[in-house]
Write a structure and sequence with these properties.
This protein is α/β, with parallel strands linked by helices. It is built from ten helices and eleven strands. The protein has two domains: 6-18 and 103-238, Rossmann fold, CATH 3.40.50.1000; 22-101, DNA polymerase, domain 1, CATH 1.10.150.
Length: 239
Amino acid sequence: MPPTRAIFLDAGNTLFTERRPRAAIYSTVARSHGSRANEDDAADLMGRAFAEIPFSAEGNFRYSTAWFETFNEIVLREMGVSESRWESAHKELIERFESPKTYKLFKETEAVLRELSNLGLTLGVVSNWSERLPVLLGALGISDKFDFIVTSAEMRAEKPNRSIFERALFRAGVPADEVLHVGDHFERDVRGAQSSGIRAAHLDRMAEGAGITKEGVPVIADLGGILSLVEQTSHASRS
Protein backbone atom coordinates (compact mmCIF):
# COMPACT_ATOMS: atom_id res chain seq x y z
CA MET A 1 0.00 0.00 0.00
CA PRO A 2 1.45 3.39 -0.96
CA PRO A 3 1.94 6.03 1.73
CA THR A 4 -0.83 8.55 2.39
CA ARG A 5 0.03 11.94 0.91
CA ALA A 6 -3.34 13.68 1.12
CA ILE A 7 -6.38 13.66 3.38
CA PHE A 8 -9.84 14.66 2.19
CA LEU A 9 -12.42 15.45 4.85
CA ASP A 10 -16.16 15.89 4.92
CA ALA A 11 -17.35 19.04 6.75
CA GLY A 12 -20.68 18.80 8.59
CA ASN A 13 -20.73 16.16 11.36
CA THR A 14 -17.08 15.41 10.61
CA LEU A 15 -15.19 18.62 11.39
CA PHE A 16 -18.05 20.37 13.16
CA THR A 17 -21.73 19.97 14.03
CA GLU A 18 -24.72 22.19 14.75
CA ARG A 19 -25.21 23.19 18.36
CA ARG A 20 -28.95 22.61 17.89
CA PRO A 21 -30.72 20.31 15.40
CA ARG A 22 -31.57 21.97 12.10
CA ALA A 23 -35.26 21.28 12.61
CA ALA A 24 -35.13 23.10 15.95
CA ILE A 25 -33.62 26.14 14.24
CA TYR A 26 -36.29 26.10 11.54
CA SER A 27 -39.00 25.76 14.17
CA THR A 28 -37.64 28.66 16.21
CA VAL A 29 -37.43 30.98 13.20
CA ALA A 30 -40.85 29.95 11.87
CA ARG A 31 -42.51 30.48 15.25
CA SER A 32 -40.97 33.95 15.49
CA HIS A 33 -42.72 34.65 12.18
CA GLY A 34 -46.17 33.49 13.22
CA SER A 35 -46.00 29.70 12.84
CA ARG A 36 -47.23 27.24 15.46
CA ALA A 37 -45.22 24.33 14.08
CA ASN A 38 -42.90 22.46 16.44
CA GLU A 39 -39.55 20.80 15.85
CA ASP A 40 -41.08 17.47 14.78
CA ASP A 41 -43.29 19.27 12.26
CA ALA A 42 -40.25 21.09 10.90
CA ALA A 43 -38.23 17.89 10.58
CA ASP A 44 -41.02 16.17 8.65
CA LEU A 45 -41.59 19.10 6.30
CA MET A 46 -37.87 19.61 5.69
CA GLY A 47 -37.44 15.95 4.82
CA ARG A 48 -40.32 16.04 2.36
CA ALA A 49 -39.15 19.26 0.71
CA PHE A 50 -35.61 17.90 0.35
CA ALA A 51 -36.94 14.76 -1.34
CA GLU A 52 -39.31 16.62 -3.66
CA ILE A 53 -37.18 19.54 -4.87
CA PRO A 54 -34.96 18.54 -7.84
CA PHE A 55 -31.18 18.80 -7.75
CA SER A 56 -31.48 21.92 -9.87
CA ALA A 57 -34.34 24.23 -8.96
CA GLU A 58 -34.78 27.14 -11.36
CA GLY A 59 -31.19 26.62 -12.47
CA ASN A 60 -29.81 26.64 -8.93
CA PHE A 61 -28.04 23.48 -7.80
CA ARG A 62 -28.91 21.81 -4.50
CA TYR A 63 -27.23 23.24 -1.37
CA SER A 64 -26.47 26.55 -3.09
CA THR A 65 -27.71 29.67 -1.32
CA ALA A 66 -30.12 30.33 -4.21
CA TRP A 67 -31.47 26.74 -4.06
CA PHE A 68 -32.27 27.26 -0.39
CA GLU A 69 -34.58 30.13 -1.34
CA THR A 70 -36.86 27.57 -3.00
CA PHE A 71 -36.41 25.09 -0.16
CA ASN A 72 -37.14 27.64 2.55
CA GLU A 73 -40.18 29.04 0.75
CA ILE A 74 -41.76 25.58 0.59
CA VAL A 75 -40.93 24.69 4.20
CA LEU A 76 -42.04 28.03 5.61
CA ARG A 77 -45.30 27.94 3.66
CA GLU A 78 -46.08 24.44 4.93
CA MET A 79 -45.22 25.54 8.47
CA GLY A 80 -47.85 28.24 8.26
CA VAL A 81 -45.70 31.32 7.82
CA SER A 82 -47.59 33.94 5.80
CA GLU A 83 -46.22 34.88 2.39
CA SER A 84 -45.58 38.45 3.52
CA ARG A 85 -43.06 37.12 6.07
CA TRP A 86 -41.24 34.55 3.91
CA GLU A 87 -38.47 36.91 2.89
CA SER A 88 -37.73 37.96 6.46
CA ALA A 89 -37.78 34.36 7.72
CA HIS A 90 -35.61 33.16 4.84
CA LYS A 91 -33.06 35.89 5.53
CA GLU A 92 -32.90 34.93 9.20
CA LEU A 93 -32.42 31.25 8.36
CA ILE A 94 -29.56 32.04 5.97
CA GLU A 95 -27.91 34.26 8.57
CA ARG A 96 -28.19 31.55 11.21
CA PHE A 97 -26.76 28.81 9.00
CA GLU A 98 -23.88 31.02 7.87
CA SER A 99 -23.04 32.09 11.42
CA PRO A 100 -20.23 30.29 13.25
CA LYS A 101 -22.32 30.63 16.43
CA THR A 102 -24.66 27.95 15.04
CA TYR A 103 -21.86 25.36 15.01
CA LYS A 104 -19.15 23.90 17.18
CA LEU A 105 -15.94 22.15 16.21
CA PHE A 106 -15.49 18.66 17.56
CA LYS A 107 -13.04 18.73 20.45
CA GLU A 108 -10.23 17.02 18.53
CA THR A 109 -10.63 18.83 15.22
CA GLU A 110 -8.05 21.61 15.61
CA ALA A 111 -5.36 19.39 17.16
CA VAL A 112 -5.73 16.68 14.50
CA LEU A 113 -5.65 19.18 11.63
CA ARG A 114 -2.52 20.74 13.11
CA GLU A 115 -0.82 17.34 13.41
CA LEU A 116 -1.77 16.33 9.87
CA SER A 117 -0.43 19.63 8.57
CA ASN A 118 2.82 19.10 10.50
CA LEU A 119 3.19 15.75 8.73
CA GLY A 120 3.30 17.60 5.43
CA LEU A 121 0.05 16.13 4.12
CA THR A 122 -2.14 17.91 1.60
CA LEU A 123 -5.49 18.61 3.26
CA GLY A 124 -8.78 19.26 1.48
CA VAL A 125 -12.47 19.49 2.30
CA VAL A 126 -14.99 17.68 0.07
CA SER A 127 -18.50 18.53 1.18
CA ASN A 128 -22.14 18.66 0.13
CA TRP A 129 -22.52 22.28 1.21
CA SER A 130 -23.19 25.76 -0.11
CA GLU A 131 -20.58 27.91 -1.81
CA ARG A 132 -20.26 29.78 1.51
CA LEU A 133 -18.45 26.92 3.26
CA PRO A 134 -14.97 28.55 2.96
CA VAL A 135 -16.31 31.61 4.78
CA LEU A 136 -17.81 29.46 7.53
CA LEU A 137 -14.61 27.44 7.99
CA GLY A 138 -12.73 30.73 8.20
CA ALA A 139 -15.08 31.98 10.90
CA LEU A 140 -14.60 28.71 12.77
CA GLY A 141 -10.84 29.28 12.61
CA ILE A 142 -9.78 26.30 10.51
CA SER A 143 -9.85 27.35 6.84
CA ASP A 144 -6.11 28.08 6.88
CA LYS A 145 -5.44 24.40 7.65
CA PHE A 146 -6.72 23.35 4.21
CA ASP A 147 -5.08 23.56 0.82
CA PHE A 148 -8.46 23.64 -0.91
CA ILE A 149 -12.21 23.35 -0.30
CA VAL A 150 -14.54 21.72 -2.82
CA THR A 151 -18.31 22.09 -2.36
CA SER A 152 -21.21 20.47 -4.18
CA ALA A 153 -22.83 23.85 -4.84
CA GLU A 154 -19.68 24.99 -6.63
CA MET A 155 -19.31 21.74 -8.59
CA ARG A 156 -23.03 21.22 -9.31
CA ALA A 157 -22.44 17.62 -8.26
CA GLU A 158 -22.64 16.11 -4.82
CA LYS A 159 -21.23 13.09 -3.06
CA PRO A 160 -21.32 10.20 -3.85
CA ASN A 161 -20.97 11.47 -7.46
CA ARG A 162 -17.39 10.72 -8.46
CA SER A 163 -16.92 14.06 -10.22
CA ILE A 164 -16.67 15.97 -6.94
CA PHE A 165 -13.92 13.60 -5.77
CA GLU A 166 -12.13 13.84 -9.12
CA ARG A 167 -12.11 17.62 -8.77
CA ALA A 168 -10.54 17.23 -5.32
CA LEU A 169 -7.91 14.89 -6.77
CA PHE A 170 -7.09 17.51 -9.40
CA ARG A 171 -6.75 20.19 -6.74
CA ALA A 172 -4.57 17.95 -4.57
CA GLY A 173 -2.32 16.80 -7.41
CA VAL A 174 -1.97 13.41 -5.75
CA PRO A 175 -2.78 9.92 -7.16
CA ALA A 176 -6.06 8.48 -5.88
CA ASP A 177 -4.39 5.52 -4.14
CA GLU A 178 -2.33 7.94 -2.04
CA VAL A 179 -5.41 9.73 -0.71
CA LEU A 180 -7.60 8.93 2.30
CA HIS A 181 -11.10 10.39 2.49
CA VAL A 182 -12.88 10.52 5.87
CA GLY A 183 -16.54 11.26 6.47
CA ASP A 184 -19.53 10.28 8.59
CA HIS A 185 -21.85 9.01 5.82
CA PHE A 186 -21.08 5.54 4.50
CA GLU A 187 -22.78 5.89 1.11
CA ARG A 188 -21.79 9.46 0.30
CA ASP A 189 -18.30 9.48 1.78
CA VAL A 190 -17.05 5.90 1.67
CA ARG A 191 -18.74 4.64 -1.49
CA GLY A 192 -18.24 7.97 -3.22
CA ALA A 193 -14.52 8.03 -2.52
CA GLN A 194 -14.08 4.40 -3.52
CA SER A 195 -15.77 5.07 -6.88
CA SER A 196 -12.77 7.28 -7.74
CA GLY A 197 -10.18 4.85 -6.42
CA ILE A 198 -9.65 6.80 -3.20
CA ARG A 199 -9.15 4.95 0.06
CA ALA A 200 -11.78 5.74 2.67
CA ALA A 201 -12.44 5.57 6.41
CA HIS A 202 -15.87 5.81 8.01
CA LEU A 203 -16.21 8.21 10.92
CA ASP A 204 -18.69 6.76 13.41
CA ARG A 205 -18.60 8.61 16.72
CA MET A 206 -20.66 5.84 18.33
CA ALA A 207 -18.07 3.19 17.47
CA GLU A 208 -16.44 1.37 20.36
CA GLY A 209 -12.97 -0.12 20.31
CA ALA A 210 -10.05 0.06 17.91
CA GLY A 211 -9.47 -1.83 14.68
CA ILE A 212 -13.15 -1.97 13.71
CA THR A 213 -14.05 -2.33 10.04
CA LYS A 214 -17.29 -2.15 8.07
CA GLU A 215 -17.34 -4.02 4.78
CA GLY A 216 -13.56 -3.93 4.86
CA VAL A 217 -13.39 -0.19 5.50
CA PRO A 218 -11.68 1.15 8.66
CA VAL A 219 -14.09 2.70 11.18
CA ILE A 220 -12.79 5.45 13.46
CA ALA A 221 -14.53 6.96 16.49
CA ASP A 222 -13.03 10.42 16.08
CA LEU A 223 -10.65 12.30 13.81
CA GLY A 224 -7.69 11.16 15.88
CA GLY A 225 -8.06 7.77 14.23
CA ILE A 226 -6.76 9.31 11.00
CA LEU A 227 -3.29 9.59 12.52
CA SER A 228 -3.12 5.85 13.12
CA LEU A 229 -4.26 5.11 9.57
CA VAL A 230 -1.61 7.44 8.14
CA GLU A 231 1.05 5.78 10.29
CA GLN A 232 -0.04 2.31 9.12
CA THR A 233 0.38 3.21 5.44
CA SER A 234 3.72 4.83 6.22
CA HIS A 235 4.97 1.62 7.82
CA ALA A 236 3.53 -0.52 5.03
CA SER A 237 5.33 1.52 2.35
CA ARG A 238 8.65 0.97 4.12
CA SER A 239 8.16 -2.78 4.52
